[in-house]
Amino acid sequence: MFESSIKLGTIMGIHVRLSRSWILVFGVTALLMSEYVRMEFPAWNPFQRYLWGLAASLLFFFSVLLHELGHSLAARFFGIRAQSITLHPFGGIAKLAREALTPVEEFWIALSGPGVNLLFGGLLAVLGLLTATTYKGVSFLMHEVSTINFVFGAFNLLPGFPLDGGRTFRALIWWLTKDYRKATQYAAVSGQILAALFMMFGIFFVFEKQGLGFIWFVMGLYLLSAARTGYEQAELRELLRTITVNDLGWEELPQVSKTLSLLEFLAQFDFGMRDRSFLVMDGQVIVGVVSLQEARLAHEQNQLTGEPIPTLADLMTPIERFERISPQTDLGSVVEKMEYSEVSLLPVVANNEFQGFVGREAITNIVRQRFGHET
């Protein structure tokens, strides 16, 4: 199955993934930097310039990775599990098991990313000075990437939500007011003001016929959209914390044997039925969950590759991957667990007895009924 990201490896137990679009960004950055260095070292041949551009692009990639590692390790310090980091053209996303529950957690987790960039920029600046007289090409590289880290870190510290500076600002307001929703509202407003300033700068530069104007305007639009979306998501998450699993109707999933082949499974259940999930059984024991959508996609891939027909045991998501929840768990926590585990339903267990499953559709329905929102 085609995935939108590529797994690069694991660092300190955190899976690192790379968006496929980063490959294009990486190549373009290397080419631009190789042309940029031409002005500083006109005697260099194309191979030397491209090698320098490649090194600059790699260090830029490493800077973004360090930023997200800063967030992840700070979260781990507060007992929040960090599952993965995904790097994309606009930065990166660290997938955490839950949101910060206190302003102190929020403050240090938000501040750690830009802080790491500023420290890394300082280290590169020192290396640039140490190599200034002996390795001028290396010194210039250290200087340029150091500047990028300083700019990247400083930009992220701007007090506009959802930038790290905006989250830090929210943490401070949260600490002063003891009100998370009010703090989020203030931080979102600051993000919208910052976005408006960026857009005004962009329009001004366009009228002045400067090429940077378009970039400033696009950045403003992106921040404006992100601030609004971030506030809506934070507000919805708080609303979800007022509802528990007990308020939902639990699903009893139909059972299928793990020995059933993909074709047998589809022949029995794929008759225009909407996507739903099934319990995969080994006798009387639940061993996993499989959905019709997963089976359909697996069948399409199987037809393309011609590989042997898999069984449901091959396709299922093992039951161990599903984190258990209790009837008293709030829906905000349920959604966080689903996002972290990348599943659409979770088993409900009370007094060590399996009660049923809660799915994302049930959460969407109750939120729509009570608040008119979508999850």
Give a description of the structure.
The structure is a single chain. The protein has 375 residues and is an alpha+beta fold. It folds into three domains: 5-157, no CATH class; 173-240; 246-371, CBS-domain, CATH 3.10.580.10. The chain has twelve helices and ten strands. The chain has a four-stranded mixed beta sheet. Strands 5-6-7-8 form a four-stranded mixed beta sheet. The longest helix has 32 residues, at 46-77. It is globular and about 75 Å long.
Quick synopsis:
This protein is of the alpha+beta class and 375 residues long. The chain has twelve helices and ten strands. It has three domains: 153 residues, no CATH class; 68 residues; 126 residues, Roll (CBS-domain).
